[in-house]
Amino acid sequence: MRPRRVGVVDVGTNSTRLLIADVGADGALRPVERRAQVTRLGGGVERTGMLAGDAVERTLAVLRSYRAAMDELGVTRTAGVLTSAARDAANGPALLATIRDELGIDARTIPGDEEARLTYLGAVSADGPSERDATTLVVDVGGGSTELVVGRGEQLLSHVSTQVGVVRHSERHLHADPSEPAELLALRADVARTFAPYARADVDRAIAVAGTPTSCAAMLLDLEPYDPDAVEGQPLRRSALEELLTRTAAMTAAQRRRIRGLHPDRSATIVAGIAILLEAMAAFGLEVVLASERDILIGAALQAAGAS
What we know:
43% of the residues lie in helices and 23% in strands. It is of the alpha/beta class.
């Protein structure tokens, strides 16, 4: 049986991403095309409860280009997931309707529990037999929410989608440029309080997905241009992340735009992202996490292809 070619979009609070992949009947997935663009869909949502008009237009422009790529590459099944910003905003349903009706993408606004499940499924999809026996924490640092998922093999043991995110917490706490030390301390304390009820002491390993950990790996490796193969599985040690946080927080946003390995569009939110990742590690008593490109897009692609 020929692999099924699926096209999946992830419409997040900070970025809008595309994965086109061939998925075999055995669940083996081969990426064909990946794209990502920071669209800041969720900018201001915490304050106004609405998606801003310019943010919606930016996001739709990117999605139209993704729809064209799907058509060009012969996608036979589409899927889309809208996450925190669309969940929280009063006009999120209108955006979803446009994506479904105008672009013909089989998209859904998914609850936090499903976001956590699909993220975990994607993160462990390439595990071998030995890794399937490990108790694994998956941390997904997003723009408006952070998922903390613990599982063993394909079995979820605990999961939560928290109201912690790089856009949300940058807007809530980081107002100076560069950030004031007191602002950063308040952000970290806020995140630590949120994560504390979900901490566990029985985690064997941790995988961190999405733009924050992969950007941290690229910065620590001094990658230019970005290389997903080099980033995949890269260990991120707490001591190195603390040093990276100190360095980036002392810079202005304009200075951060010039850091090798950091996409300029992430310069405004990377400080909050590193702080959130560090607080997740602290909550679970971890000294190292593995950065990974395998995230909710992989999980959604496997689900769309009927392989999960």
